[in-house]
């Protein structure tokens, strides 16, 4: 894969490769850490949420569980549609269907792109399905993974090749800052030379709102006050109902409601919010909206899994 055109600058190809290789090596420990978090966070949801084939991508686009990435230069994103390793390369006839992901994923991508000032970021992968993933494994070792986050619609890849070195380094710094803030998980992939980015579970609701605001024409940059706070939502569970396997024991206990305070940490530095405050209600609403949208596209499969297990 040539990087001469990639650098688009006066840096010699050998120096470009040396700098990028050193950067990738320097990110190895962080990548391993975030890869483990991806497995722990999203591994339990592969069965109900992963897209099996192209038909399910079509269904997701029809129901809103998946949304297209706008091919609009004002978002500071370009999509690799041709050349080496373009998006949808294993199903080029339906290429535009792969320029899509979960709303939260697109919102996260828009947030990343808005922070990079030295040039647009190039995206080489968004949503894929499991059959596509299997085909890709023959040419891309990074497609062999315990948690297929692309097939969950929760990942995007930002290219280093075809990107000037100063922009590559700025992207690295932006992603590192966002990772430290608890917004994203990042794996720097050595083989493909891409940044593999997944939103943190605690930010899915927020990034769904970022997407909605961006498409609605509003600015999506997070206010400074919001960036300074990492909230904790404290709420109470009014009642619990178990799955059918435990229902007999539950009803024998008269289905007594419980009052269990619950704290949901949203990052390493938490700021407590009262459940009745507007900020807490807004955060909870964004989170519930995201999961409602997510389940709307996957509910038939989810209920089938639950029925099979009970």
What does this structure look like?
It is a single chain. The chain is of the alpha+beta class. The chain has a domain at 4-215: Muramoyl-pentapeptide Carboxypeptidase, domain 2, CATH 3.30.1380. It has twelve helices and ten strands. The protein has helices at residues 4-7, 13-26, 28-42, 46-49, 54-63, 103-115, 130-136, 165-180, 204-215, 224-228, 247-252, 278-309, and strands at 67-68, 77-79, 100-101, 121-125, 156-159, 184-189, 194-199, 231-237, 260-265, 271-273. A hairpin with a 4-residue loop joins strand 6 and strand 7 (194-199). It starts with a helix and ends with a helix. 35% of the residues are buried.
Q: What's the SSE pattern? A: HHHHHEEEHEHEHEEHHEHEEH
Unreliable parts: 219-232, 234-243, 249-276
* Helical residues, percent: 40-55%
How many extended strands? 10
**Largest sheet: spatial strand order:** 2-4-5-7-6
Helix run count: 12
Percent of sequence in beta strands: 5-15%
What is the CATH architecture term of the domain at 4-215? 2-Layer Sandwich
For the sheet with most strands, the description reads: 5 strands, mixed
Tell me, briefly, the overall form. Answer: globular
Query: What average pLDDT do the residues reach?
Result: 78
CATH class membership of the domain at 4-215: Alpha Beta
List keywords for this structure.
310 residues, single chain, alpha+beta, Muramoyl-pentapeptide Carboxypeptidase, domain 2, three-stranded mixed beta sheet, five-stranded mixed beta sheet, 10 strands, 45% helix
